[in-house]
Amino acid sequence: MTEQIITSQPEQENAHSLTTTAEVVPTPTVEAAPAPAQPKPKQPRQLVRFTFYKLDPQWYLLPAETRQQGKQQLLDIYNEFFQKHALLRSYSLFGLRSDCDFMLWQATYAVEDLQGLSSRILRSIMGPYLRETHSFLSMTKRSVYVGKNARGAHDPRLVLTPLDKKYLFVYPFVKTRPWYALPMEERKRMMNEHIRRGLAYPSVSINTTYSFGLDDQEFVVAFETDSISDFLDLVQDLRETEASQYTLRDTPMFTCVTQPLDDILESLGV
Question: For residues 208, 213, 256 and 247, what is the CA-based torsion angle, rounded to 10 degrees?
Fold first, then answer.
């Protein structure tokens, strides 16, 4: 018993000396990496649809009461979507084109809104008698020919704001493939000339939307003006620009008259 106690004491002392003489190594301080910069939120872009309708003559064979109900139902649908969407306008074309009677210009931020309006019209009383003769789908987009400094943080071309002038001229537009093979500086030079010609007609304003991959055309252009003659002269003048040589297609063209849908339906005898 005594030996075990004596022999165990040096071990305890040794252990104690090891504990008291051990050096404490400081833990290195690790600096946290700076958080990556958050990308600036992009300004949302609008989806745009131009839909042209033709009323079937069979509609006029229905009882007057049914036609009145159908007319009011269509107006209710239009007014409902007018209140909650970014843009909804109606235009008359009867007497100006044989293949359509009126057009609805719609802009929103969701595909479901475009489909929703179309679905409601199709399922209405008038739906089976309204044929979509033409439809153009497009989207707002920043112009590659205008610098960021000129546009600023908010680009008005990403949000359609109609001036509600008397006339709206709409047509799809396609450029030739050789146009896109040209250097950007060359295209800018030609577009600057094109833009200068357009500025000579201040009574005409343009809304350009883009359809690459969305529809058959590349662009849809919509000109607003109170003067038909000014628009005619503008288009003829633009034919002489160098950039016009690279136009593949810019038809069909639609002359639309700004008019409330109620007045359009009344004029059609609905």
Answer: 70
pLDDT in tens, 159-205: 999 999 999 999 999 999 999 999 999 999 999 999 999 999 999 99
Q: What is the pTM of this model?
A: 0.82
Helix (H) or strand (E) holding 148: helix 148-151
Higher model confidence: residue 37 or residue 120? 120
pLDDT surpasses 80 at 112: yes
Q: Tens digit of pLDDT for each residue in 128-171?
A: 999 999 999 999 998 888 765 444 445 667 899 999 999 999 99
| CATH fold label, 47-267 | Alpha-Beta Plaits (3.30.70)
State the Cα–Cα distance between residues 200 and 231, nearest whole angstrom.
Answer: 11
Give me the residue spans of the domains in the chain. 47-267
Separation between Cα atoms, residue 68 and residue 71, nearest integer Å: 5
Q: Which amino acid is at 105?
A: W
- Structure tokens of 137? 């789908």
Instruction: Report which of 175, 71, 78, 62 is spatially closest to residue 118, judged by C-alpha positions.
Output: 78
How large is the angle between the packed helices 64-84 and 111-122, nearest 10 degrees? 170
| Strand (E) or helix (H) holding 120 | helix 111-122
Distance spanning both ends of the chain, measured CA to CA: 120
Between the alpha carbon of residue 25 and those of residues 17, 22, 28, the distances in Å are: 18, 9, 9
User: What's the CA gap between 37 and 30, in Å, rounded?
Assistant: 21
